[in-house]
Design goal:
4-stranded antiparallel β-sheet; two-stranded antiparallel ribbon; 1 helix; single chain; alpha+beta
Length: 182
Protein backbone atom coordinates (compact mmCIF):
# COMPACT_ATOMS: atom_id res chain seq x y z
CA UNK A 1 0.00 0.00 0.00
CA UNK A 2 1.42 3.32 -0.99
CA UNK A 3 0.59 6.58 0.69
CA UNK A 4 1.23 9.99 -0.62
CA UNK A 5 1.53 12.79 1.83
CA UNK A 6 2.40 16.39 1.72
CA UNK A 7 2.79 18.59 -1.27
CA UNK A 8 5.84 16.80 -2.59
CA UNK A 9 3.96 13.55 -2.97
CA UNK A 10 6.49 11.52 -0.95
CA UNK A 11 5.99 7.80 -1.05
CA UNK A 12 5.67 5.89 2.21
CA UNK A 13 5.51 2.13 2.00
CA UNK A 14 3.93 0.62 5.15
CA UNK A 15 3.99 -2.95 3.94
CA UNK A 16 6.09 -5.15 6.20
CA UNK A 17 6.19 -2.61 9.06
CA UNK A 18 5.80 -4.28 12.46
CA UNK A 19 4.87 -2.78 15.81
CA UNK A 20 2.15 -2.29 18.37
CA UNK A 21 -0.79 0.03 18.10
CA UNK A 22 -1.51 2.55 20.81
CA UNK A 23 -4.59 0.57 21.86
CA UNK A 24 -2.53 -2.60 22.31
CA UNK A 25 0.02 -0.73 24.43
CA UNK A 26 -2.71 0.81 26.61
CA UNK A 27 -4.37 -2.57 27.19
CA UNK A 28 -1.02 -4.12 28.16
CA UNK A 29 -0.31 -1.23 30.53
CA UNK A 30 -3.74 -1.63 32.15
CA UNK A 31 -3.20 -5.37 32.70
CA UNK A 32 0.27 -4.85 34.22
CA UNK A 33 -1.09 -2.09 36.48
CA UNK A 34 -3.94 -4.31 37.69
CA UNK A 35 -1.55 -7.15 38.49
CA UNK A 36 0.77 -4.77 40.36
CA UNK A 37 -2.17 -3.39 42.36
CA UNK A 38 -2.96 -6.93 43.51
CA UNK A 39 0.61 -8.13 44.08
CA UNK A 40 2.15 -5.20 45.96
CA UNK A 41 -0.20 -5.22 49.01
CA UNK A 42 0.10 -9.01 49.25
CA UNK A 43 3.88 -8.78 49.09
CA UNK A 44 3.92 -6.02 51.73
CA UNK A 45 1.78 -8.15 54.04
CA UNK A 46 4.25 -11.02 53.88
CA UNK A 47 7.26 -8.73 54.28
CA UNK A 48 5.80 -7.16 57.44
CA UNK A 49 4.86 -10.57 58.84
CA UNK A 50 8.38 -11.84 58.17
CA UNK A 51 9.89 -8.80 59.90
CA UNK A 52 7.72 -9.38 62.96
CA UNK A 53 8.66 -13.08 63.12
CA UNK A 54 12.37 -12.26 62.84
CA UNK A 55 12.15 -9.67 65.63
CA UNK A 56 10.16 -12.04 67.86
CA UNK A 57 12.81 -14.73 67.37
CA UNK A 58 15.45 -12.17 68.39
CA UNK A 59 13.41 -11.25 71.47
CA UNK A 60 13.15 -14.94 72.39
CA UNK A 61 16.94 -15.32 72.15
CA UNK A 62 17.40 -12.15 74.21
CA UNK A 63 15.04 -13.47 76.89
CA UNK A 64 17.01 -16.73 77.02
CA UNK A 65 20.22 -14.74 77.55
CA UNK A 66 18.52 -12.67 80.27
CA UNK A 67 17.31 -15.84 82.00
CA UNK A 68 20.74 -17.45 81.69
CA UNK A 69 22.47 -14.45 83.28
CA UNK A 70 19.97 -13.62 86.04
CA UNK A 71 17.72 -16.68 86.53
CA UNK A 72 14.82 -14.21 86.36
CA UNK A 73 12.30 -13.66 83.57
CA UNK A 74 10.70 -10.28 82.80
CA UNK A 75 8.57 -9.07 85.67
CA UNK A 76 10.14 -11.69 87.96
CA UNK A 77 7.90 -14.38 86.44
CA UNK A 78 8.69 -17.93 85.43
CA UNK A 79 7.22 -19.11 82.15
CA UNK A 80 4.94 -22.08 82.46
CA UNK A 81 2.17 -24.17 80.96
CA UNK A 82 -0.91 -24.71 83.07
CA UNK A 83 -2.45 -28.17 83.08
CA UNK A 84 -5.26 -28.59 80.55
CA UNK A 85 -8.64 -27.28 81.78
CA UNK A 86 -7.03 -25.10 84.43
CA UNK A 87 -6.80 -21.35 84.20
CA UNK A 88 -3.61 -19.56 85.19
CA UNK A 89 -3.69 -16.82 87.81
CA UNK A 90 -5.34 -13.74 86.33
CA UNK A 91 -3.06 -11.13 87.87
CA UNK A 92 0.08 -10.01 86.11
CA UNK A 93 -0.11 -12.07 82.97
CA UNK A 94 0.81 -9.40 80.42
CA UNK A 95 3.55 -6.89 79.88
CA UNK A 96 2.63 -4.50 77.06
CA UNK A 97 5.86 -2.46 77.17
CA UNK A 98 9.04 -4.43 76.52
CA UNK A 99 11.14 -1.32 77.17
CA UNK A 100 10.09 -1.12 80.86
CA UNK A 101 12.80 -1.55 83.50
CA UNK A 102 11.13 -4.62 85.03
CA UNK A 103 11.40 -6.41 81.66
CA UNK A 104 15.18 -6.05 81.62
CA UNK A 105 15.79 -6.27 77.88
CA UNK A 106 16.87 -2.68 77.24
CA UNK A 107 17.70 -1.33 80.68
CA UNK A 108 17.82 -2.20 84.38
CA UNK A 109 17.02 0.08 87.28
CA UNK A 110 17.73 -2.63 89.85
CA UNK A 111 14.11 -3.12 90.92
CA UNK A 112 13.72 -6.65 89.51
CA UNK A 113 17.16 -7.52 88.23
CA UNK A 114 19.21 -6.49 91.24
CA UNK A 115 22.66 -7.95 91.44
CA UNK A 116 25.75 -8.16 89.29
CA UNK A 117 24.53 -10.83 86.87
CA UNK A 118 22.46 -8.56 84.64
CA UNK A 119 24.69 -8.15 81.57
CA UNK A 120 22.45 -6.14 79.27
CA UNK A 121 21.15 -4.47 77.36
CA UNK A 122 20.00 -7.66 75.70
CA UNK A 123 18.44 -5.81 72.79
CA UNK A 124 19.87 -2.81 70.98
CA UNK A 125 18.12 0.53 70.89
CA UNK A 126 18.05 0.31 67.08
CA UNK A 127 14.93 -1.85 67.54
CA UNK A 128 13.08 1.08 69.12
CA UNK A 129 10.73 3.38 67.22
CA UNK A 130 11.28 7.13 67.24
CA UNK A 131 9.03 7.45 70.32
CA UNK A 132 11.22 5.03 72.30
CA UNK A 133 8.70 2.17 72.15
CA UNK A 134 9.38 -1.31 70.81
CA UNK A 135 6.79 -1.57 68.02
CA UNK A 136 5.85 -4.15 65.39
CA UNK A 137 5.64 -3.27 61.65
CA UNK A 138 2.00 -2.16 62.12
CA UNK A 139 2.87 0.32 64.89
CA UNK A 140 1.59 -1.54 67.96
CA UNK A 141 3.91 -2.49 70.82
CA UNK A 142 5.21 -6.04 71.11
CA UNK A 143 4.11 -7.67 74.36
CA UNK A 144 4.90 -10.58 76.66
CA UNK A 145 1.93 -12.64 77.83
CA UNK A 146 2.45 -15.32 80.46
CA UNK A 147 -1.05 -16.75 80.10
CA UNK A 148 -1.58 -16.99 76.34
CA UNK A 149 -3.94 -19.79 75.39
CA UNK A 150 -2.99 -21.98 72.40
CA UNK A 151 -5.04 -25.11 71.63
CA UNK A 152 -6.39 -25.35 75.17
CA UNK A 153 -3.01 -24.94 76.88
CA UNK A 154 -1.46 -21.88 78.45
CA UNK A 155 1.95 -20.65 77.32
CA UNK A 156 4.26 -17.74 77.90
CA UNK A 157 4.72 -15.93 74.59
CA UNK A 158 6.21 -12.79 73.16
CA UNK A 159 3.80 -11.49 70.54
CA UNK A 160 2.75 -8.91 68.00
CA UNK A 161 -0.88 -7.89 67.66
CA UNK A 162 -0.57 -8.35 63.90
CA UNK A 163 -2.09 -6.36 61.06
CA UNK A 164 -5.45 -5.85 62.78
CA UNK A 165 -3.64 -4.08 65.67
CA UNK A 166 -5.74 -5.77 68.35
CA UNK A 167 -4.80 -4.87 71.89
CA UNK A 168 -2.46 -6.96 73.99
CA UNK A 169 -4.52 -9.69 75.59
CA UNK A 170 -6.82 -10.12 72.62
CA UNK A 171 -5.99 -13.61 71.43
CA UNK A 172 -7.00 -13.88 67.79
CA UNK A 173 -5.80 -15.61 64.64
CA UNK A 174 -4.11 -12.44 63.46
CA UNK A 175 -1.54 -12.38 66.28
CA UNK A 176 2.04 -13.40 65.56
CA UNK A 177 3.74 -15.03 68.53
CA UNK A 178 6.75 -17.06 69.60
CA UNK A 179 6.47 -19.39 72.59
CA UNK A 180 9.10 -18.53 75.21
CA UNK A 181 8.07 -20.88 77.97
CA UNK A 182 6.28 -24.15 78.46
Amino acid sequence: MLFYCGMGMAEIDLRGEKGFTLVELLITLAIVSALAAIAIPTYSKYVNRSRAIAVLAHVKDSLKALDHDTDIWPGGKTPYVCPVNQTPPAAGGEYPDLTADDIGLFNNNGSVFAGPNWDGPYMQSSFLASDGMFRDPWGTPYFIDYDYQIDGKWYAVVASSGPNKSAAGVHDDDNIYVVIGQ
